[in-house]
Amino acid sequence: MIRVLLVDDQSMVRTGFRTILESENGITVVGEAENGQIAIDRALELSPDVICMDVQMPVMDGLESTAEIVRRGAAGAVLMLTTFDRDDFLFRALAAGASGFLLKTAEAEQLIDAVSALAAGDGLLSPEVTRRVIERSVREPEPAAPAAAELYQLTEREIEVLELVATGASNAEIAGRLFVGEATVKTHVSNLLTKLDLRDRIHAVIWAYEHGIATIGRREDTL
């Protein structure tokens, strides 16, 4: 059973999300919070698998709350939800440690899929999020950091998988390109996340571009 904490300052929004999520077998809402400060307390108390977190709230916003929850290790993953389709929210949420980002205008099925993905440890790596991460790296180019020491812990195959993850490819797509099974790809992804001390796939994308492991040209070659 996937245990979810809902955080939003509007009670009607929380009720709507609860109705959507609990219509799906295997998902239960274990608690609610109306601001980021209460969310920290609820997360520590309930240890939910996924927190659906609003961005803009009184007392403490979702970005600050997420950073503190992640720092304390109080939840499995945080899914940021907002009505504002703004890059600054997206990147601040990722920097805070969020594992996914979804607009409140998304379809009900997308919310269910996002919660399920985060609970499975996959992270919400949509093509749109990947595109924005890549476009920002182009708009704001910085000298690629030298490959971190952690990189040398990766096998050649794990580096190949990391490069493909950075394009936004799914496990199935990576398996097809490398001629291996999906279970094998999942193992490689899990191993490289552990070795690089990364929370999920979306942070693997950011790491790959920040350290010059993935480049725009390489991305185009793999598509």
Rg: 17 Å
Task: State the assembly state of the protein chains.
Answer: single chain
Total helical segments: 11
Helix content: 40-55%
Main CATH class of the largest domain: Alpha Beta
Topology of this structure?
Layout: E1 2-7, H1 11-21, E2 27-33, H2 36-46, E3 50-54, H3 62-72, E4 77-82, H4 87-96, E5 100-103, H5 108-119, H6 127-139, H7 156-165, H8 171-178, H9 182-196, H10 201-210, H11 216-222
Parallel strand pairs: 1-2, 1-3, 3-4, 4-5
Helix pairs in contact: 2-3, 3-4, 6-10, 7-9, 8-9
Model description:
- By secondary structure, the protein is of the alpha/beta class.
- It folds into two domains: 2-124, Response regulator (Rossmann fold, 3-Layer(aba) Sandwich), CATH 3.40.50; 135-222, Winged helix-like DNA-binding domain superfamily/Winged helix DNA-binding domain (Arc Repressor Mutant, subunit A, Orthogonal Bundle), CATH 1.10.10.
- 53% of the residues lie in helices and 13% in strands.
- The chain has helices at 11-21, 36-46, 62-72, 87-96, 108-119, 127-139, 156-165, 171-178, 182-196, 201-210, 216-222; strands spanning 2-7, 27-33, 50-54, 77-82, 100-103.
- Strands 2-1-3-4-5 form a five-stranded parallel β-sheet, with helices on both faces.
- Helix 2 packs parallel to helix 3 (62-72), helix 3 packs parallel to helix 4 (87-96) and helix 8 packs across helix 9.
- The longest helix is centred in the last third of the chain and has 15 residues, at 182-196.
Structure, briefly:
The chain has 223 residues and is α/β, with parallel strands linked by helices. 53% of the residues lie in helices and 13% in strands.
